[in-house]
Amino acid sequence: MSKGKDISLLKDFFGTYFHQDWALDASSTEAVVTAHARTMPHDSIRILAQAVINYTCSVASDEELEEKLYTDLDCEYCPRADGLSARQWLIYVSEWLLKTCEHGRS
């Protein structure tokens, strides 16, 4: 997948599901990811998970990655509020997507 398509896919995911009121829709970030994954075919989940990793690896510093979550991806969740760096959280999101896929969208 091209970088432009990755960004579009990521912006759709993070901007839609981690909007400013995301915490009113779900009790945790895991619940948000699981709810979204339940609506997707397994192949699409894997593509999204890989796009998250590709994006994470494309940004050198955690500070820049945290800023880009908001500026590039329209993500309103701040991982630092839960004691995580943006990189840690994005890797976790990718892993959670794959776990949800592998475990029948638990």
Structural features, described:
The protein has one domain. It contains 6 helices and no strands. Helix 3 packs across helix 6.
Binned, the helix content reads 55-70%
Ends distance: 27 Å
- Tell me the overall shape: globular
Largest sheet: none
Structural class: mainly alpha
Poorly predicted spans: none
What's the β-strand tally? 0
Number of domains: 1
**Residue-averaged pLDDT:** 89
How big a fraction of the residues is strand? Answer: under 5%
Strand/helix succession: HHHHHH
Rounded radius of gyration (Å): 13 Å
Number of helices: 6
Q: Which short descriptors sum up this protein?
A:
106 residues; mainly alpha; globular
Q: What's the SSE blueprint?
A:
Blueprint: H1 3-17, H2 22-25, H3 29-37, H4 42-58, H5 62-71, H6 86-102
Helix pairs in contact: 1-4, 3-6, 4-6
Task: Please summarize what this structure is.
The protein has helices spanning 3-17, 22-25, 29-37, 42-58, 62-71, 86-102. The protein has 106 residues and is an all-alpha fold.
